[in-house]
Amino acid sequence: MNVRRSAAVLAAVAVIGAATPAAAAPSPSPSQAFPSALYGDKDPQYDGVWRQSLALLAQHTVGVKPAAKSVEWLVRQQCADGSFAPYRADPTTACDAKTMVDTNQTAAAIQALTALGGHDAVTGKAVTWLKSVQNKDGGWGYTPGGASDTNSTSVVIGALTAAGEKPQQVEKGGKSPYDALLTLALGCDGDDAGAFAFQPDKKGELAANADATAAGVLGALGKGMVVKPGAKTEAAKGQACEGGKTPEQVAANGAGYLAKALAKDGHLTSPAPGSDPQPDYGNTADAVVALAAHGDTGQAEKSLRWLEKNSAPWAAQNGPGAYAQLIFAAHATGTNPRDFGGTDLVKQLNATGPAPQTAGKTQEADEESDSDVFGVWWYVGVCLVAGVGIGFLFSGRRKRQQP
Q1: What is the rounded distance in angstroms from the CA atom of residue 228 to the CA atom of residue 217?
Q2: Counting CB atoms within 10 angstroms of each CB, which of 29, 36, 109, 290 has the fewest?
Q3: Which stretch of 15-29, 182-196, 316-330 has the lowest confidence by average pLDDT?
Q4: By 3-state DSSP, what share of the chain in percent is helix, strand and coil, each rounded to 5?
Q5: Over the stretch 64-94, which tens digit does the pLDDT of each residue have?
Q6: Overall pTM > 0.85
Q7: In sequence order, what are the beta bridge partners of 343?
Q8: What CA–CA distance (Å, rounded) separates 110 from 106?
Q9: How many CB atoms lie within 10 A of CB 77?
């Protein structure tokens, strides 16, 4: 009996066992503090819609049909004007001026719901809202009216592309999102040549930011969170940063910066106050996606291998959003997310929320023979008969113990 067949039998027996009367049923666990439709068990106040969107988008990417109630929860988080807040505990209450809506949650929801299909009215309203809060420089800040930043502008570009819009034609004051990104890209001088800044500092200076660079490369390419590897290019590490402010050129320069940053250890680092820099797993996964989208598959695959070996504890601690990021990185490099360094990322993601409607098929499942299936259900039938007998046994025992 192979492993998958054994798992099927054990799952069926577990269902039977749950249906069989027990001598002493365990006390019910306290109800969840947050909606059962929500992925993850941490406070969703700041990232509920974001992580839900990433989880649903990652499931769709690997052929898993999410639970209907999880999709419905995301849809109901939308405000009447089309925007999304991170978390609305009571979606029946109308949004008001105190509701902290933002561009990132809204753009993520658009990408997820567009991929799932059937939500054109929801995504259409969300796109209209994003256009209404576009800044005069063509970009977006995290919140409406905030200064444009690379990350927010890029995730909105991904949403526009997903919704069938042409980002270069979405303008405010004659400026498109690409115009905003070009102003946030560093030049070709110094060690940080080709990088993107998050935002200019108070003096208007740009400082390299690896997280922003990964986002900026995708944005400049007009890509969203889910990408297929682009046409292979020369190793980005060996490409010299070139001047010329076009989206294609700043994407190439940004990819070169990322490849150089990843080349030494295979990962990006996140300086922690008072301690040595630590590996930055999330930004490394995002960098893998960006490099793969640009076609720099060599370094992307090397860093993906590093993530396979080292990211499991980080993903387990951070939950659905982290598993989704790793699935996106695996997808971008043609890596099987169900065998990611010995971990099934899809299974781990599914376990952080409601059981999906379909879990997707693997090659091994397709190859199982009818005789294997018959053998499983023959075994289940035996267990069912045994379970019924045990049920009568416990029932009789209770009757005998009654005074």
Answers
A1: 14
A2: 29
A3: 15-29
A4: 55, 5, 40
A5: 999 999 999 999 999 999 999 999 999 999 9
A6: no
A7: 340
A8: 6
A9: 25
Rounded to whole angstroms, the Cα distance separating 248 from 235 reads: 16
Whole-number Å distance between alpha carbons of 134 and 141: 8
The residue whose two tokens read 């009447």 is: 80
- The single-letter code of the amino acid at 289 is V
Tell me the residue type at 208.
Answer: A
- Helices and strands (H and E) in the chain: how many: 16, 2
Taking every pair of Cα atoms in the chain, the longest distance, rounded to a whole number of angstroms, is: 91
Rounded to 5 degrees, φ, ψ at 267 are -145, 160
The residue type at 285: A
Q: How many CA atoms lie within 13 A of 315 on its CB side?
A: 27
Burial class (CB in 10 A: 0-12, 13-18, 19+), 368: middle
Tokens, residue 284: 């490394």
Residues in the chain: 403
How far is the C-alpha of 98 from the C-alpha of 65, rounded, in Å? Answer: 34
Amino acid (1-letter code) at residue 17? G
Q: Which two tokens stand for residue 319?
A: 């939950």
Counting Cβ atoms within 10 Å, is residue 12 exposed (0-12), middle (13-18) or buried (19+)? middle
Per the listing, tokens 């998050």 go with 198
Which residues lie closer than 8 Å to 188 by C-beta, 6 or more apart? Answer: 194, 240, 241, 242, 243, 253
Q: Identity (one letter) of the amino acid at 238?
A: G
